[in-house]
Amino acid sequence: MESDAPVDELYRRHRSAVLAYALACCRDRYTAEDLASEAFARTLQAVRSGGGPQAAWRPYLLTIVRRTAADWAGSARRTELSPDFEQWLANVPDTPEADSGEERILRLEENSLVLRAFRSLPERWQTVLWHTAVEEEPATKIGPLLGIGASGVGSLASRAREGLREAYLTAYGETASGADECRRYSSLLGAAVRRTGRRTNKDLDRHLAECERCRGALIELTDLNERLGSALPAGVLLWGGSAYLAARLAEAGAGAGGMAIAPGAPHDAVPLDGGAGWWARAKDAPMSSGAVAGSVVAAIGIAVLVAPMPFGDGGKGSKSAPHAQVAARPPVTVSGHPPPVTLTATPSRTAPQAGQSAAASAPASSESARPSPTGADLGAVKWSGSLRNAGVTAMCIEPGGTSVVQNTCDDGKDQVWETFSFKENKDYTWLRNAATGECIDYRGGTQEVSDNAANVRIRMGLCREAGDGQLFRFDPWWGESDGSYLVRAELEDGKPWNQMQLGMLDWYEGNDPPPEKDAPVVLTYNYYNAPRLRYRVDVK
């Protein structure tokens, strides 16, 4: 008699992920539970029939969820599927060979170059890619899945990334419609994306100007190279990849203290040349694999059902908060990343440098414990300065009545913010305005969904010595060397602002430009490491 232990372990490891994706496909949790159960049943049936995966269980199970949902669309259960999934399925092209929704999906899978490339890899490579880039799990958790030590996960993932790029180019070369010319240039696409040379090839530039299909391949390949964590679920799942990502990050708590590393930001990625032309367009294409617009809202609804989060969860229509992270787990220390800013530093008049804490370069204050207008004694000012948005560098934070807004930087006193050392945790500070003496306050904030993201409204309020709902920490940004910081609210399990940070309400650069005057500032998640969600410190 066969033991049920392997089946139980399979269910334990993957149930949460499968349910998260099923929720994206269904109208309610009850239906999603049914869909997840059927996906497990079909997978076990395939394995017992000699098929199914050997190692890459997670992407296989998620694929079966989508196929099963497509099959339901042709039955009485179609009314239980989410409207978004139904609409997506309705837009899948019909083919003479496809008699059902599931068969149409199979045809669609055959046409996905990312999916074909991914499936051509050894299953160990598929597994390490999915769990490192998409799930962002630590090596100590991934190693046992592959039967290797944690120290071997990084090198295996690096080989798998390169293997995926090569497999994509092979798949593209096999389907290139431009015959010999497109196939000839496919190898140059790979070299350009890996930046083996700084200068682009003029012949390739000419070909890209004439060939729309090769331009699309360049964008997709660039996504695999620079945004694998978002490109992979988009290409493998075909639908709802970003909603799945949002729900998983919400459940996991967005990792590293609130999405320190954006999904899709490979640790070994080397950016393309920052010039003009097709290269810059490919690099700048926002989530070109995964349709950003409208995805956050849907993901937020999904995450609410995934796990008991402080506010449920957030996402982005489908792409969500990569961050719709909300799972309330303590921040993780990421080796090699700069430590949080410690607001107890030596005097200096120079602005903070990239990778250096704001406190480390802060000028010593000549003031001694100047109390706020309320009489709250916050201690001595450690440093003061303006907070310049890293994405819209001409704008700085200032009070806007009782609100907090961004306007053109003008060196006025209302754009100067004073910082302190919170006695119970030196990494935290109030942000007190030098002109009004009031502090940025988020204590009464509640979760909202605005446009395409979850946020908490903030206001100006009387400073409180207890610091509740008014504390921030400056975490140096370790991406681009722009000297910016993630200005994060206090980590508090169960609070709507847990894992959030200061940022523009209009954080997504693919939308219309933000208001030129009084652009709202809120607490939100670190969606895709958007520059508008970070600030530079101009020390005064």
Q: Which properties best describe this structure?
A:
540 residues; alpha+beta; 6-stranded antiparallel beta sheet; 17 helices; globular
Summarize the structure.
This protein has 540 residues and is of the alpha+beta class. Helices cover 39% and strands 12% of the residues.
SSE class: alpha+beta
The total strand number stands at: 14
**How far apart, in Å, are the first and last alpha carbons?**
75 Å
Q: Give the integer mean of the pLDDT values.
A: 74
Rg is 25 Å
Shape: globular
Please give a structural write-up:
With 540 residues, the chain is of the alpha+beta class. Helices cover 39% and strands 12% of the residues. Strand 7 and strand 8 (453-457) form a beta hairpin. Helix 14 (241-252) crosses helix 17. The chain starts with a helix and ends with a strand.
Topology:
Elements lengths: L4 H21 L3 H20 L8 H16 L10 H8 L10 H11 L1 H8 L2 H12 L4 H8 L6 H23 L3 H16 L7 H9 L1 H15 L1 H10 L3 H12 L2 H5 L18 H7 L10 H12 L76 E7 L5 E6 L2 E6 L8 E3 L12 E2 L5 E3 L5 E4 L2 E5 L1 E3 L10 E5 L7 E6 L11 E4 L14 E6 L10 E5 L1
Antiparallel strand pairs: 1-4, 1-14, 2-3, 3-13, 4-5, 6-9, 7-8, 8-13, 10-11, 11-14, 12-13
Helix pairs in contact: 1-2, 1-3, 1-14, 1-17, 2-3, 3-5, 6-9, 6-13, 7-8, 7-9, 7-13, 9-10, 9-12, 10-12, 11-12, 12-13, 12-16, 13-14, 14-17
